[in-house]
């Protein structure tokens, strides 16, 4: 299995109950990325994305731009690792 670029992003703000996960899923359709987006019990949203580095970074930027009015803070980490996901889903 070949390595892909992987990013984990935690979004803080008014990010639950505003369609954040649905919007992330819609944005993902325009990019060649796999992964998931999910609500966390502490009120944040977690996004995991993998693919070619430029695609992953542009996808995350597009999600941030689409939901900018709701995001107060983001925490992001990136790494190279074996692909783990097929498609992009809401959890």
Describe it for me?
The protein is of the alpha+beta class and 91 residues long. It has a single domain (3-90), classed as 2-Layer Sandwich (Alpha-Beta Plaits), CATH 3.30.70.100. The protein contains 2 helices and 5 strands. It has helices at 20-28, 53-66, and strands at 3-13, 33-39, 45-51, 71-82, 88-90. A hairpin with a 5-residue loop joins strand 2 and strand 3. Helix 1 runs antiparallel to helix 2 (53-66). The radius of gyration is 12 Å and the shape is globular.
Derived from helix and strand composition plus strand pairing, the structural class reads alpha+beta
Number of helices: 2
Regions with pLDDT < 50 over 5+ consecutive residues?
none
Walk across the major sheet and give the strand order.
4-1-3-2-5
The major beta sheet can be summarized as:
5 strands, mixed
Task: Give the key terms.
91 residues, globular, five-stranded mixed beta sheet, Alpha-Beta Plaits, alpha+beta
What's the helix and strand layout?
Layout: E1 3-13, H1 20-28, E2 33-39, E3 45-51, H2 53-66, E4 71-82, E5 88-90
How would you summarize what this structure contains?
This protein is of the alpha+beta class.
């Amino acid at each position: 299995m070949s390595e892909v670029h992987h990013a984990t992003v935690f979004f803080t703000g008014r990010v639950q109950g505003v369609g954040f996960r649905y919007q992330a899923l819609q944005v993902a359709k325009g990019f060649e990325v796999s992964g998931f987006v999910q609500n966390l019990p502490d009120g944040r949203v977690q996004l995991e994305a993998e693919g070619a580095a430029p695609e992953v970074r542009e996808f995350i930027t597009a999600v941030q731009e689409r939901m900018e009015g709701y995001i107060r803070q983001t925490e992001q980490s990136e790494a190279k690792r074996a692909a783990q996901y097929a498609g992009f889903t809401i959890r």
